[in-house]
Structures are given as structure tokens and as C-alpha cells.
Amino acid sequence: MRKITADIIYTISGEALKDHVLCIDEDGTILKIDSMNQHNSSEVLQLRGALIPGFVNAHTHLELSFMKDKIRRGNGLSKFIVDLLSIRQTKEEIIQEAIMRADEEMHQNGIVAIGDIANTTNALRYKKESALFYHTFIETLGYAEERADEIFNEAVALIKLHKQAGLQTSLAPHAPYSLSRRLWEHLSMYYSISPELTSIHMLESKDEINYCYDGSGAMKSILEYLKYPEETFTPYGLRSIRAVWPYMEHTSRILMVHNTFMTQNDFNFIGKQIDKIWLCTCPKANLYIENKLPDYEVWKKNTSQICIGTDSLASNNTLSVWEELKTIHHYNPELEVQDLLKWGTLNGANALGINNRLGSIEKDKKPGIIQLEYNPAQQTLWDAQLHRVI
User: Fold this and answer.
1) Which of 171, 159, 184, 307 is nearest to 240 (CA)?
2) 3-state secondary structure of 13
């Protein structure tokens, strides 16, 4: 049994503790949390700063890890997508090497669980062998109505492969603007039979909102790149969240990612169904692509179900929840540190349905333990150096 303490222990699920000891089994299970005076100090590893549970990265794209530094920042979502499509195909060994490095990077950065978007089986074997927990969202997208049946069947086949590998998996639409009506209908029927957690990129840019409403704006360039006629996409005449909500009503939980342009009216539209929504913010990616962050004060007025993602290395230079939290706090210093730590840990675990074992420092959990090394008398928490303890 290992005994560990620090200046403060952020349990996340309860109060922050001082003068307490974590008693941890060799496999990482927390056996008990005791007062320090119940133990001989010579038997306790005493660390400076804070202890917190491991982070949960609720949204990334592991398969896109090879795209680091390949897409110019600040050009907006439409140009970002066209650039991504233009370099999506590369040598298999390059993709595999980048996936392996990204998994290792997340482990080193104190991440214990990931919500990962997948379009292929490229990362499957790494997820099976990884020390990290993965929930894989098999992503569906496709503009052409005539290909909807084929695309849906391919997604279902990918789900089966991931489940056969023992991985937690569910089906997810890409975004409001990138699915044909027939493909949406397939998903709606699927969710009515198998209600489950899903994920969707939502309200990520003004381009998305305008395109869904009347087909205008820069997103037409995506169809041009794909050599589809402009009429391939039929506008909804509605704001994007209203346009696709009916197709997702049977899901058990929705991880809505980005929500950069989410307004109070959007929250009013969701209404009483807000309890099934988890808002996932990826601040560094938002700054990379659109140079804009969500209005977190509006979020907090309407929900406490907020979690953190890193997005992919195509739109980020790190896969670190800690760096995402520091970015949010830099632009929003009024936010409470303990609230932000909860966004990066327990809330992500709740969103992915794994809060029974991860996300907080509690007896019988195996949440991973992270040290945030800082001098409480001289530095703020956000100056801390991160070290993975367990």
C-alpha cells in the first residue's frame, strides 16, 4: 500500500482536504482517505502543491494526430475543413506512429480517459493496448443522399469491430451541416432502438449557422472541394441546433462539442432536456480555428454539465486538458479553480458514463493521481508543473 499526501487534495466530489493521506493499493485503487495524524509521517510520500484525480479528455480525434502543424491557424472553420480533407490521406505508417505518440502524450499529461472520434480502425489496436480508457464515437457524415445507406452500414460495421475488441463505443453524427437527410433518418431510427450516448460538433462557427439556415457563406467551399453540386445540401431554414434536434431526441445523452456560438436562446430552445446535454469545450482549438471562445458565463447560468476536450492535433499543439483549463482561466479569471478542475475531471467522467471508477478521489475508485507542483505561498495554481503520480 502506498501513502501519499500534499499541501492540498482536491477530491473534486467533495471538499478540498488539508492534512490528509491517500492510502492507495498497488493497482491504483484508493483504499481510504485518512487524517494525517493517523499515520507515521515517515511512511507517507509528502509532495508539494496539490493532488487531483486524472483528467478526462472528452473530445479528440486520435486518427488526425499526424496533422500536427499542417493546417494554418486562424482561417475559419470552412477553410480548416477543406485543408483537412486535402491532407487526410497519407502513409499508414505515419498515421500509426502519430497515434501511438498521441496516446503516450495524453498519458504523460495526466489524462486517464478519452472520448475519441473515429472514422476508421486506425487507432483500434492502440486503444486495446493503452493504459487509458477510451470511449470511441464512430462518426457518420456524408452529403450525398444516394450514399446514405452505404455510409450508415459502414458505421455500424465499425461499431461491431470496436465492441468485439472490448471497447466502449457508440454512433455519432459529425455536425449539423455534414449529413444528408436520409443519413440523419438512419441515425434517428438507430437511436430509437438503441438509445445511447452520442456526440456532435455544434454551433462551432457563424459559417455553420448561416449554411444550415439558408445555404449561404463559406461552407459552400466544402462541396466545391468534394466536386458536389451546390444543391447537394438542402438548407434547413433553422438555426443548426434546432435543425437536427428532432433526429437526436431518442439519445440518452448528447456530448455537444465546441458550442462556441451558443446563445441564451439556444439554451431556451433545449429547455427541460438540458439534463441530457453535456457541453464540451475545446478552447485552444476554438482559438486556433475561429479565434473565439464560448461565453462561459452564459453556459454556467444554464448548466453545470460542462467538460473539457482537446480536439485533435490538427487544431492544437498539445493534447493536454491541463493546458485547456489554463487557457480558459487566462481569458476568464473570474471562474473558480475548483469548478474548472471539475470540468476537467469528474464532469468528463460523468459525460462518458465512467464516473463509478474515474473522475474524483474517492474510496474504491482508480482515478489516477496527478500532482500539481507549486508553492502555495508564492505561486498560483496555474503556475504549477504537472506530474503523474499514479
Assistant:
1) 184
2) coil
64: nearest Cα among 43, 46, 87, 34? 87
Q: Return the axis-axis angle of helices 148-164 and 181-193, rounded to nearest 10°.
A: 40
In DSSP terms, 267 is beta-bridged to: none
277: left (phi over 0), alpha (psi -120 to 50) or beta: beta
pLDDT at residue 366 in the model: 97
Among the listed residues 243, 302, 293, the one whose alpha carbon sits nearest the alpha carbon of residue 267: 302
Amino acid at 303: T
Host H or E run for residue 49: strand 45-53
Cell of 247: 433526429
336 to 52, 209, 384: CA distances (angstroms): 15, 31, 16
Handedness of CA 345, 341, 270, 149 (dihedral sign): negative
Please state, in angstroms and rounded to a whole number, the distance separating the CA atoms of residues 102 and 363.
30
137: amino acid identity, one letter: F
pLDDT one-digit tens code per residue, 24-51 = 999 999 999 999 999 998 999 999 999 9
Q: From edge to edge, which strands make up the β-sheet containing 197-202?
A: 197-202, 253-258, 277-281, 306-308
Residue 298: pLDDT over 90:
yes
Q: Cβ(30)–Cβ(24) under 8 Å?
A: yes
Q: Phi and psi (nearest 5°) for 82?
A: -65, -45
Tell me how far apart the terminal alpha carbons of the chain are, to the nearest angstrom. 13
Confidence of residue 377 (pLDDT cuts 50, 70, 90): confident
pLDDT digits (tens, 9 = 90+) for 204-256: 999 999 999 999 999 999 999 999 998 899 999 999 999 999 999 999 999 99
Structure pTM?
A: 0.97
Closest Cα partner for 383 from 344, 347, 330?
Answer: 330
Q: How far apart are CA 138 and CA 116, in angstroms?
A: 9
- Residue 266, all three cell numbers: 439556444
Give the angle 60-83-119 at the CA atoms, nearest 5°. 40
